[in-house]
# Entry
Amino acid sequence: MGTTAYGDWIRDFEAARRERAERGDPEWRTGVPLHPAIRRSVQRFQVGEDGDGAELITKAEAAGDAEYASAVRMFVAEERNHARLLALLLASGGAPVIASHWSDRVFVTLRRALGLRLELLVLMIAEVVALRYYRTLRDGADDALTREVAGRILSDEERHVPFHCHRLRRSLRPLPPPVRALVTSGWRAALAVAALMVAVDHGPALRRLRVGRGRFVVEVVRSSGPIAATMR
# Structure
C-alpha cells in the first residue's frame, strides 16, 4: 500500500464488496445447535458490531482527506454486515439479539469522547481482540454454519487491522520517536487489559471452543507486538 493515498484501500474494499455480492449469503437454516455459552458470547459480539459508525465517519470527514473518509465509510459498512450476519446466525439457532452489553457501552463511550487518533487506537483494541475471537469461533465451533460466518467475518477483520494501522502510522509520524513508543506501549497495555476482560466475560464459550482464558489473552498480546511496530 502507498504511504499517503487511500485509493488502494478503496479498491480493496470495493473488491471485497463485489466478492460478497457474487458469493451471496451463507445457506441460512433453522435449528443450528448453538451451545448456550457460545450463543451468549455471539450475542455480545453482535452488539459490538452493530454500531452505526456515524462518529467515526464524521471525524474521518473532518480530517480533510476525501479518500480516507470514503474508505472509512466502506469499513463501517462491513462492520454493519458483520452485525447482520451474526444476527442471522443467532436467528438460525433460535436466539434473539440483545439490546446492549456493558463492554460495548464502555468502548463506545471511550471512542466518542476522543479525537480521531485516539478513537482509532481504542477501535484497534476491539479489532485485534476480534481477530483472535473469530479465529477461535471458526476453528472450534461444532456446526458448519457458525464456522462459515466466523470465517467470513475474520477475512474482513484481517484487512481492517492493516487499514487502521496505515492511518495510525501516518497520524503518529509527527510525534517524537520516544512519544510514539510510549503511545504504542500504552496501547499494548490497554489491549492486554481488554483481552483479559473478554477472556473472563466469554470464558465458558472459550472453554467450549477449546481455547482457555489464559491462552486467549497470551495470543492476543503476542499478536500485538508486530501491529504496534507497524503503527510506530
User: Anything to note?
Assistant: The chain has a mean pLDDT of 91. Residues 38 and 205 are 5 Å apart (CA to CA).
